[in-house]
Design goal:
alpha+beta, Serine Threonine Protein Phosphatase 5, Tetratricopeptide repeat, five-stranded mixed barrel, 19 helices, about 15% strand
């Protein structure tokens, strides 16, 4: 499942997603999943977060002639984590849809279970349909449902999109073209779709130019396709660059195969920072594809892709290191690239690298050694970087470090325990809804540990944690009620729901 075939370069798709700041297109396939092991802190404006079991196979393979393949099926709801739709209930069977125009390889089997994030809408008969977010397994990018796939109020959305499109909004013009192409709450009309695509492209929008080029390529209008891809590429649109590179590899049968041109266009895209272009270009040099083998160039481009947390690039570097082909031991070290990605602002990498530092500290037999304590300081450094980007789990982890949890060997003389800072970080995490931080704050105020004892504050935080399913917090509320300490009879009688999942 989730196999990646980078040797097979897929047909180019150029699409501007609604609600996203970046347009996506592909020169290769990469694996995506419908399931989330981490729930993003901002929740992506989702209507539904739930644990589900698939009732059907859900697959999509982007390749020539298969652009219309829908990732669609049904799920059974196992547990509701969040919902804004009253129609959703446990054990209910719900239809799902996945964006059919992403450049991804999706393959889930009947019976697979996981956490989904979705927008909710009604079909033509008023039944609930969940339109799913997907997660890239290589770089962890998250793709929301696009406008044509899942409009929360389709008639109104179409009117709003049309109004924006008529005012010259290129993104709205592309979305309106997609609405007509797919026939959402309007009669399917390819001529009308093309009209809006052309308007967006004529306004100079690179994503629209690339998408329109895709349409012309499917219609075997090679001259117009190449022209539009080149216009987009001249604006620095890296996906158009790889599109042209793929055409020189033979896709679309528009351009005569030309190895030098393949490398030239992939180089331009790679220089533009596109990690998949860097990966593919590195493999070209590594394997001698479309030109001579060059280990130095292969390592150069693979390093750039690895620095963007491209796991496949790291695997290529590991292989080259084992075979003595120019890569260093550091190149083959996943932790090294994780640290670089963390330094470059990747919040997931910051969390993972911080956790690695704590594991090093805890596994080291010399954990009292000052040098090993530096691992804890390093963990705190990267958690703070993640917290600065709003990651609530990082805030909670900082609270644990400064309070001394997980770093039991550090005494006060080493000045890493800082209870005031711990309370500050626990409070920030709790205010953002972190269940364990809320429960911990309740305990601190209940017992008067490192804060002024305050039953009202304790009850406040225990209530919030219990409402999210924390049984310990619910038990403490009962205890405080029996002791006559601020908690009410309702607090004592309220059982916590099944503990909700929280990733940190």
């Amino acid at each position: 499942m989730f196999l990646l075939s980078l040797g097979h370069i897929a047909f180019v798709l150029c699409l501007l997603f609604a609600g996203a700041t970046q347009a996506y297109a592909c020169a290769t396939t990469w694996p995506e999943t419908l399931f989330f092991d981490v729930i993003p802190e901002k929740l992506l404006d989702a209507d539904v977060i739930a644990k589900v079991s698939l009732l059907t196979d859900v697959s999509k393979y982007p390749s020539p002639g298969m652009e219309e393949e829908l990732g669609a099926g049904a799920v059974s709801v196992v547990q509701i984590i969040k919902t804004s739709d009253a129609r959703l209930h446990p054990d209910e069977k719900i239809a799902i849809k996945v964006d059919p125009m992403t450049c991804s390889y999706i393959d889930h089997d009947n019976g697979d279970e996981g956490i989904i994030i979705a927008k909710a809408r009604s079909d033509a008969e008023g039944r609930l349909v969940l339109c799913l977010y997907t997660r890239n397994l290589l770089n962890r990018h998250i793709t929301p449902p696009s406008a044509y796939e899942c409009l929360p109020d389709e008639v109104q959305a179409t009117d709003q999109t049309r109004l924006a499109a008529e005012k010259g909004d290129a993104k709205a013009q592309v979305d309106l073209g997609l609405i007509y192409e797919r026939g959402h709450e309007v009669r399917k009309n390819n001529e009308e779709a093309m009209k809006w695509y052309k308007r967006a492209a004529e306004s100079g929008d690179a994503a629209a130019q690339c998408m329109l080029g895709q349409r012309y390529l499917r219609e075997e209008n090679c001259e117009e396709a190449v022209k539009l891809f080149e216009l987009a590429a001249d604006q620095g649109y890296v996906y158009a660059m790889t599109s042209i590179g793929d055409m020189y590899r033979g896709w679309g049968k528009c351009l005569e195969k030309n190895d030098a041109k393949v490398r030239q266009w992939y180089t331009r895209a790679a220089e533009g920072g596109y990690d998949l272009a860097q990966l593919i270009l590195g493999r070209m040099y590594k394997n001698g594809e479309h030109g001579k083998r060059n280990d130095a160039e292969a390592v150069k481009w693979l390093r750039l892709a690895a620095a963007q947390t491209n796991a496949y690039a790291v695997s290529e570097l590991e292989e080259m290191y084992r075979k003595g082909r120019g890569a260093t031991k550091k190149d083959a070290d996943k932790s090294h690239w994780l640290q670089i990605a963390a330094e470059n602002g990747d919040v997931k990498a910051q969390l993972e690298y911080g956790q690695q530092c704590l594991v090093k500290y805890q596994n080291d037999s010399s954990w009292k050694d000052v040098k090993n304590v530096e691992n804890v300081k390093e963990a705190a450094k990267y958690y703070e970087l993640a917290a600065a980007q709003g990651h609530v789990g990082a805030m909670y982890n900082l609270g644990k470090i400064y309070y001394g949890y997980d770093v039991w060997a550090i005494d006060e003389s080493m000045r890493l325990q800082n209870k005031a800072k711990a309370v500050e970080w626990f409070t920030r995490a709790a205010e953002h809804g972190h269940i364990f931080a809320q429960s911990e704050l309740g305990r601190l105020y209940q017992e008067g540990r490192d804060v002024k004892q305050d039953d009202a504050e304790a009850v406040k935080w225990f209530r919030l944690a219990a409402a999210q399913g924390d049984h310990h917090a619910a038990d403490q509320l009962k205890k405080m009620y029996l002791q006559g300490r601020e908690a009410t009879k309702d607090d004592a009688n309220a059982d916590a729901d099944e503990a909700k999942l929280y990733w940190f």
